[in-house]
Amino acid sequence: MSDYQAFQVELKGSIAHVQINRPEKVNAMNAAFWTEIIEIFQWIDETDAVRVVVLSGAGKHFSAGIDLMLLASVANEMGKDVGRNARLLRRKILQMQASFTAVDQCRKPVLAAIQGYCLGGAIDLIAACDMRYAAADAQFSIKEIDMGMAADVGTLQRLPRIIGDGMLRELAYTGRMVAADEARTIGLVNRVYSDHQALLDGVMAIADEIAGKSPIAIAGTKRMISYMRDHSVDDGLEYVATWNAAMLQSSDLRLAMAAHMTKQKPEFVD
Amino acid sequence: MSDYQAFQVELKGSIAHVQINRPEKVNAMNAAFWTEIIEIFQWIDETDAVRVVVLSGAGKHFSAGIDLMLLASVANEMGKDVGRNARLLRRKILQMQASFTAVDQCRKPVLAAIQGYCLGGAIDLIAACDMRYAAADAQFSIKEIDMGMAADVGTLQRLPRIIGDGMLRELAYTGRMVAADEARTIGLVNRVYSDHQALLDGVMAIADEIAGKSPIAIAGTKRMISYMRDHSVDDGLEYVATWNAAMLQSSDLRLAMAAHMTKQKPEFVD
Amino acid sequence: MSDYQAFQVELKGSIAHVQINRPEKVNAMNAAFWTEIIEIFQWIDETDAVRVVVLSGAGKHFSAGIDLMLLASVANEMGKDVGRNARLLRRKILQMQASFTAVDQCRKPVLAAIQGYCLGGAIDLIAACDMRYAAADAQFSIKEIDMGMAADVGTLQRLPRIIGDGMLRELAYTGRMVAADEARTIGLVNRVYSDHQALLDGVMAIADEIAGKSPIAIAGTKRMISYMRDHSVDDGLEYVATWNAAMLQSSDLRLAMAAHMTKQKPEFVD
Amino acid sequence: MSDYQAFQVELKGSIAHVQINRPEKVNAMNAAFWTEIIEIFQWIDETDAVRVVVLSGAGKHFSAGIDLMLLASVANEMGKDVGRNARLLRRKILQMQASFTAVDQCRKPVLAAIQGYCLGGAIDLIAACDMRYAAADAQFSIKEIDMGMAADVGTLQRLPRIIGDGMLRELAYTGRMVAADEARTIGLVNRVYSDHQALLDGVMAIADEIAGKSPIAIAGTKRMISYMRDHSVDDGLEYVATWNAAMLQSSDLRLAMAAHMTKQKPEFVD
Amino acid sequence: MSDYQAFQVELKGSIAHVQINRPEKVNAMNAAFWTEIIEIFQWIDETDAVRVVVLSGAGKHFSAGIDLMLLASVANEMGKDVGRNARLLRRKILQMQASFTAVDQCRKPVLAAIQGYCLGGAIDLIAACDMRYAAADAQFSIKEIDMGMAADVGTLQRLPRIIGDGMLRELAYTGRMVAADEARTIGLVNRVYSDHQALLDGVMAIADEIAGKSPIAIAGTKRMISYMRDHSVDDGLEYVATWNAAMLQSSDLRLAMAAHMTKQKPEFVD
Amino acid sequence: MSDYQAFQVELKGSIAHVQINRPEKVNAMNAAFWTEIIEIFQWIDETDAVRVVVLSGAGKHFSAGIDLMLLASVANEMGKDVGRNARLLRRKILQMQASFTAVDQCRKPVLAAIQGYCLGGAIDLIAACDMRYAAADAQFSIKEIDMGMAADVGTLQRLPRIIGDGMLRELAYTGRMVAADEARTIGLVNRVYSDHQALLDGVMAIADEIAGKSPIAIAGTKRMISYMRDHSVDDGLEYVATWNAAMLQSSDLRLAMAAHMTKQKPEFVD
């Protein structure tokens, strides 16, 4: 793990704790953020010793979204020709999307722990995570609408599969604040914890549970669920049959079965 | 705005209030209804001054669905050859579907305000709206099953993305009545208001909030969410990048940013 | 109806009651189970007199999932070459999937009534049913993760359309038990009944309600909702228009209309 | 048939002959062209007496593509805001696409007869027809590249299904002229006739042959082939089964069978 | 291999020779044909000793398509209610489609050898094969149009991927005869042989060549090409990566490599 | 342009000439090849001064495909657990696929110039290019089948859109050599040149022609054609309308129009 400007990353047992670490800026997403997150998740993806990821924000808030300084610097790169500006903007957006796609396509489950503000780009980010958990003081807003733009790094693409279409439209058109309890009701978060510490403890406990499972089984399960966002039931069935044709030959099944018989907890290789 | 037989249409500021206006017939959808709704939404689509739409029903009920007289007149057009009858019926159904597709594909958000009965074809209609809000006395039923037919103007196509698949099947197979509170629980409506007036006031307030946003940003947001009903996450990301390549060059971003700095409400051009 | 080893099948009026009948083995799914379920649903599909299906488990539990003896016998068939083993496993998995696809694609609605344990393969099974109802003592777990494998006979393919993506991932990664009430909250079951008898009575009543509708209309409604899991709204609209081009020429519409006029209950032919 | 500015339309038996009729402007596609073509094909679609369509160009050339005057007038409508200009342009392009989609989705087969120049927008047009036939002097060019733009009314969307991907790219990137013989070799046209008169005679003969078939069977065949451009084999099989469930009940089959037995030519109702 | 009424099946080394064997009826497809073909291809699929299939027709012609007696018997099953007739017809068509889907989805390559007439349903059949080879006297016609119906057992679904869209439409609308040479030019057959014996010898030689390859590699190659008819390039790439994750662990690679080094022909296990 | 081990890269005007440069190894694709090709095409993609790419092979042959030393080194990384080996292999294949996806998704047209052998992986590579041109001595073979494996870096995914399905299967199952003339007939290459020098001159001339067009228009055209491999006609039409909403505001259109009027060759900015 290298040193990062926008993040702090720790490996606790098999759990990588990835913390956005610019609390003095409400964890706003600056240029470093967007490139470092790719490096971090590439490392996670390639490192078999990491089995699960907790993503959180340092300080009182999860994140206020994109850093406005970054937007300003993009504006400065633009020239006179609308077509060439469009070419430049399209590339920039695709690059920023790739940062969150790295989170989405990470082979290990990613659990987001959210306290305080979770605004704009921060919603795009947590929508790319596997599960979301909140402290009671969490506040969510699809803030992009108030910046005069349609959200373009994942919120509008990934959230429809997570919360209801009808409520998503209300939140995306109005940008209104959603408190932790409503977030749980509409399915945006799985559980609400009383405060920040209880949130971190709770999420770490779930992560620990997952870290104890067969990493081969977890990887397969994640790939299948992600695959189903965009494929038919028939396609999904054939895909899992092909996947498991190899994976059921792993020794993890025998290990799990033996542990099941002896009522012991199995220890799986990374 | 021309005069309509089945509707009353008003422009209140930037809000088009479209009211089904046959209260003496429980707002049943007659021949005029199906053609006029296309004209109305075409006008809304082309008129930049309209930024948001409220769709409601005059009188005690939202609507009892398709007018049985209309069904009878279609039956009269049929001849002896089953194949040619099928050709005729297929065309008629496609035409009626086009009426609600005009609502669905309208570039501006459409908010449905529902009191009393909302039956059969009326469910198909509100499923084509962006958001749904109900008065406490609202009652919903997928009535088509009791007419001996599968619903064919949108309910079965659009509702799965809005409410759970399991509950949808129960409602579609049994045609049972759903009260306002259950409708909110299953995600069919976003909020329940105490009575008809509170409903209209509440929906108008939300519409007003949306009307104050950048119309460029709202149009993009709506297109993206609708697009995601039928496309993969990757397709959606590329599409919004291409869309925003043009739209982020709009002056609305600068306006929004300036307003944000000065804590003022921005005034966007239509 | 032949005799079955793993099932008991009864025809009550127009309702086929299909009961998994190995209570002494917690209704574990053995070799007979996987082949007989195909025969049973083929018979249901071809028999017009059956209009709706209730699927339940004999004894205190719905089912503990796949029989471990069956897994062991597959393991015994494997040889030395990884490629040929993969070919064998892929075929086996596809065959087992076909057993639940027979439930999924059955032309009549299938209602699952669940008490006690519903584990592993039993979740795959109920995910292939139209609706799910539970007794208060029901307990659900995506148990496959604890056997060192990704679920591969339907849970990961069909459940995302039924419960929220975020909660599904938590349940699939951790395998934790879900009680009846939480199952209702997340949309996994439609209703919770106080005990086993109340469950059976309640589900039979719903089945009876559905059996009274036009079988032509029910079949069309089911096909359309299933179709929408995997197709675009536009595709769905065109498909239902083509379907109804034939089906609206059925006499069931006239029958339903006449009954509606005379306030009587229509009697539809099978 | 009304009077048209850009077209001449004749009904010869069951064949509608639609002729682009601005020979003095090399049949360039002006404003009238784009709106009239929709009206004409709507009339064709609704008129059962029309069974097949021949589309040709008056004079020495088929068409030189879009009228540059029309492009200039669109340019004049543009204002200062890039976002609002994009909104306007997107709408205009969608409108023009709708003109050729009317040809593509016409329920009757459309045969294009091409002599002389077939440039730019004219390629987009013939790509929306069912079949293409050329005179020996025909010359094809995807001219848009030389106007500084990507073709946007159908060529790039429909041509990949008709000619090879590799050759399409060469033609679209270079805009080079393709003579009639090469057009036949790469599958762009089905046959080359020695001159303009032979072309018209030949195409009329094929149209006549098609006009003698069952219109129910022809409509089904066309819908299925068009459907397969965008759907899986499995989807296509299910769709045709549903379609034919109605259409095989038509009396045309008995008529065809009887004619087959008696070696006579069957006479089908429109 | 059991005895069949409509077929003769021989196993020559690793090649299954499946011959339609009703030469006195021009190999017309009767009731036995449609059920036996499923059994035959199920046997082929499950029998590892069969590595490749040659499909041919006994006598002077490949096949005249569906037996008209069979159509008549379906007609006799129909009742008075259009809806219930549609239900019956849809089922029958789906069943007949399943017969050719068994050919299409067979895990081993299927080579069609065609002489004389290949009409109507026979085109549907060869479109479900991997490759097609013809004798010089072969004649092809999409005959269904002359029976007053749209082809519904695979021609319109599978042929667009094999021959050009433009020419397919001409053949499907007119039903005109296509000779062997034109069939090769448009890609319907891969090669034309001088006469029937040369055809059988040539096709057997190709089959023999294929039978000598690794059956693991052949099965993967076939699945991937079939998969690509209906999936995106990205989906296909991921699928083959998952497939080969197991299959590259087969010993066939080492065997092939060793044979390559020693310039010998490798001998692969079934 | 850095120094590469496996390539030589030159910028000639606006044309990047990328040459595989291991002639002493028949341009076999070693480890350096697979990583360098990504860097090269990333540089091309980001460098506006490059407008078109020519891809060729140094020496007498284009390329013999993957270097067998590389395969051996992957085999060495494998351990005992089949599941973990599958995880490793899947990752490796996805990485190698990414190398050719970089070619496929490059924003500039890529023209392959092929002489001598083009075997195995080399077919996967040219299938990812826009167009293919051959010298008379070129020889093509889908060689993977003789290595006991299904091709897995693009041939089976991309070739079906380029050559006919029927012929592709023959070539993929048999691995037989295809000479230049047959390659042209089946659409694998666009043109055959008499010898290696004529090939390079001819391809450079086409590249030069393309380099003179508007780079904005070329990029749009390429994106649209690639998009159509995997999307419906309707999706493609909407996408190009959205794309051109920005790009038609570029000054290249005015420039092209002005040049057209004055019969001069326009000079477009990069």
Automatic annotation (TrEMBL), chains A, B, C, D, E, F:
Pathway assigned in UniProt: Lipid metabolism; fatty acid beta-oxidation
Classification via InterPro entries: ClpP/crotonase-like_dom_sf, Ech1-like, Enoyl-CoA_hydra/iso, Enoyl-CoA_hydra_C
Protein origin, superkingdom: Bacteria
One Pfam family here: ECH_1
SUPFAM superfamilies referenced in this protein's UniProt entry, alphabetically: ClpP/crotonase (SSF52096)
Keywords noted in UniProt: Fatty acid metabolism, Isomerase, Lipid metabolism
NCBIfam families noted in UniProt: PRK06142.1
Sequence similarity: Belongs to the enoyl-CoA hydratase/isomerase family.
Protein's name in the database: Crotonase/enoyl-CoA hydratase family protein
Taxonomic lineage from the root: Bacteria, Pseudomonadati, Pseudomonadota, Gammaproteobacteria, Pseudomonadales
